[in-house]
Amino acid sequence: MIMLYFYYHEKRRLQIMIQLDKLQKWLQDTNTDVAYISDPVNVNYFSGYGSDPEERVLALFVFKDAAPFLFTPQLNVEEAKNSEFDSDVYGYLDHENPFKIIAERIKERTNHFEKWAIEKDNLSVFRYQAIKTAFPTASFTQDASRFIEQTRLYKTQQEIAIMEQAGADADFAFEVAFNAVQTGVSERGLVGQIEYELKKRGVMEMSFDTIVQTGANAANPHGGPTLSTVQPNELILFDLGTVKNGYMSDATRTVAYGTPSDKALDIFKVCLEANLTAMDKAKPGITAAELDAVARDIITKAGYGEYFNHRLGHGIGKSTHEFPSLMEGNDMELEPGMCFSIEPGIYIPGVAGVRIEDCGHLTENGFVPFTHTPKELKTIAVH
Ligand SMILES: [Mn+2]
């Protein structure tokens, strides 16, 4: 066990070094002096150190011509030093001005701090102004967000292995959910049972708020859970995800409790066909827009096009939603190593909603899902 633990950490340390090297090489290629990484998810991706700093400042500074450093609240410094990050960690106390200390640390490290890359998707205006005040002649025009989303697009074998484990936790959650269904239990009650069993299993965090929707409630794609209760002869939709070592799972299953209406059964059948066909057609070289169209055409031909009111899927990794976005207009070709969801849905207000979703990774041979709970309509006997 100890050897395995050591092996895992060495592999992870190596992977983080490779990722950090890519960022430094990008700075060199674009002749940028400093990258200010402010999104905690990206700080974790490039340093191995992860925490939610709340309102405090957590940042990673990477340089064209000097060693990077992590900057954390003082209370996190020891933890950060024990992470996979191999360079300096500096802290600040709550009463200190973090940007004054950051500026000092940068100036003692390098003479080059004129051209900056910042995460335009993440850095707050307040912090942008603070760093600008500390470096009044510097320019902050380079956007690190665009580079990082491209880098994170391709997952390594190690990342995929973690996401498979996250998927196994999601499959476990479905098993708990299906066993907990009975007349009168509320949507929130089902969420409680799912998350309680996950915590007992050691899963501490969901990747988003668990969705359980009974009957017509499921026609609101991201609504719920409410205090509505399970009633016979309705569909029930479960959309859930777990976090494993900083990577997400995300999957949706719709099941029948008793015998739902013919309409509900028909939209299930069409949605399943759209899901299975899109999974089958997901191959390297097809574009994101083309794959979206594969599923959308099936649903449209069946007469439900207007009720599929979102994109086919989204990328997944350290965030639940990242690149690539599987939607009309995105001509990005899908390639091996990309991880994304395939999740067609049909939502008919006042009637029922169905969504069937797996996330997976693309290989040379096709799409390999992270979750394996069967998708054919599961009927739970009324009790
Ligand atoms: Mn999803």
Automatic annotation (TrEMBL):
Keyword terms, alphabetized: Manganese
Family annotation (InterPro entries): Creatin/AminoP/Spt16_N (IPR029149), Creatinase/aminopeptidase-like (IPR036005), Creatinase_N (IPR000587), Pept_M24 (IPR000994), Peptidase_M24B (IPR050659)
All copies of domain Peptidase M24, residue ranges: 162-364
Ranges annotated as spanning the membrane: none
Keyword Manganese set for record: yes
Keyword set includes Manganese: yes
Family annotation (CDD domains): APP-like (cd01092)
Domain of life the protein comes from: Bacteria
Cofactors named for this entry: Mn(2+)
Domain Creatinase N-terminal: 20-153
Family listed: Belongs to the peptidase M24B family.
Protein name: Xaa-Pro dipeptidase
Species of the source: Amylolactobacillus amylotrophicus DSM 20534
